[in-house]
Amino acid sequence: MVRLFFTLVAVMLTACASQLGPGTSLAQDWTLFGEEQAQVGYEKLSFQELQSSAKIELTDPLYQAYSSGYEKGRTEYCQQDPRLLGKRGEMYRGICDELRPTFRTWYMNGKASRGRYSY
After folding, report:
1. What three-state secondary structure class fits 20?
2. Would you indicate the residue range of the signal peptide (predicted)?
3. Which of 27, 57, 66, 117 is most buried by a 10 A CB count?
4. Alpha carbon 86 to chain centroid distance?
5. What ranges do the domains of the chain cover?
6. Torsion sign across C-alpha atoms 72, 78, 84, 90
7. CA separation for the pair 5, 30 (Å, rounded)
């Protein structure tokens, strides 16, 4: 009985973890979702990736809302100092390479300087 319980819990957690996107059909929610994804540095998801894991049926207008929000969030994310991002040890997934070609280089410089002391 205990084994069955833990199996059911594991299945439920897996199902919840694999769902992406808001559970509504409101474009504003999808715009906000895209913006939030980019602001933490996640790569943009394709229509197929979102559709396969969304809680609702994804439509072209909802994907466009996600995309516009993502681009807004990406612009904000890429305005930060990449050296500090690297120095803090945060992961960089390459979302700024097109907007700021030197972002990755400065990120790597910051990452390389982790643990060094300035006297």
Report:
1. strand
2. 1-27
3. 66
4. 17
5. 27-77, 81-114
6. positive
7. 35
